[in-house]
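Q: Please design a sequence for this.
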């Protein structure tokens, strides 16, 4: 979700086997996905433990650079093993890798991928989910945003429908100048009630890619629609607004606790139904 960097786009291909890892994590204690100096990150705990197992030349690229505090149910990473290193027993490698990881990061699967596979460059759809809670909860607080206002999920869904298609999301982006482009093609955006008794409202959005803080600002605008402080049609108005306005989306940015990278899809893959109560609520 943060701006891309040329150095990452030009990362060299390695001649060793390439693997596809699917990873879940609780991002609450991390400063996002991307490895940083003097900051605890998801990539920053995954890569050293991987290199301990397969060698120092291993590389790891994530499909999405989730921001600080954002979670993942299905992050995808390409694992480039060192030249000359065989893939071996991948299930055994996955278990050994997990043994070295903190409890809030878990490798769900590890499979062989084509040699040219790159998790970020080859992805065709990324799906994010934001979870609003209508009630206080002792168990789900780290994974929802509790909203005391009554929420009209149907109105929120009407507003979300206006996001589909190719739009300039500059007004929903942090540091738009740091992106190559602020145009994003949204495949779908919808809001629905959670299962009966859950008191959840779920915002799901799928797109080719996302800009820095884009989903949290979209969720914040839809929250205002659900609370009746904005009309669904105001979503289109805010899309056309330039950054910097006092009434713009930046002031409506919701916390990262309710945001999940739900899935990443590649050519030929279909989006599977997701459990709305995962993680436990």
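A: Design:
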């Amino acid at each position: 979700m943060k701006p891309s960097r040329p150095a990452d786009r030009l990362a060299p291909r390695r001649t060793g086997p390439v693997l596809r890892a699917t990873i879940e994590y609780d991002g609450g204690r991390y400063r996002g996905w991307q490895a940083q100096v003097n900051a605890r990150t998801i990539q920053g705990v995954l890569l050293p433990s991987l290199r301990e197992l397969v060698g120092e030349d291993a590389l790891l690229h994530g499909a999405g650079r989730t921001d600080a505090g954002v979670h993942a149910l299905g992050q995808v990473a390409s694992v480039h093993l060192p030249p000359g290193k065989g893939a071996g027993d991948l299930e055994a490698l996955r278990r050994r890798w997990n043994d070295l990881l903190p409890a809030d990061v878990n490798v769900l699967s590890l499979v062989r991928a084509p040699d040219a596979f790159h998790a970020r460059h080859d992805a065709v759809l990324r799906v994010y989910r934001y979870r609003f809670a209508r009630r206080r909860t002792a168990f789900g607080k780290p994974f929802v945003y509790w909203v005391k206002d009554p929420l009209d999920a149907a109105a929120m869904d009407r507003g979300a429908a206006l996001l589909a298609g190719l739009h300039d999301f500059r007004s929903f982006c942090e540091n738009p100048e740091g992106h190559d482009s602020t145009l994003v093609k949204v495949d779908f955006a919808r809001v629905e009630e959670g299962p009966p008794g859950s008191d959840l409202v779920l915002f799901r959005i799928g797109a080719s890619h996302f800009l820095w803080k884009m989903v949290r600002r979209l969720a914040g605008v839809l929250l205002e629609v659900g609370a009746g402080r904005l009309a669904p049609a105001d979503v289109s108005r805010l899309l056309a607004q330039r950054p910097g306005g006092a009434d713009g989306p930046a002031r409506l940015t919701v916390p990262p606790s309710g945001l999940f990278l739900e899935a990443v899809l590649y050519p030929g893959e279909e989006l599977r139904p997701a459990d709305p109560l995962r993680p436990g609520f």
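Q: Thanks. Anything notable?
A: The radius of gyration is 19 Å. The domain at 125-265 is CATH 3.30.70.660 (Alpha-Beta Plaits).
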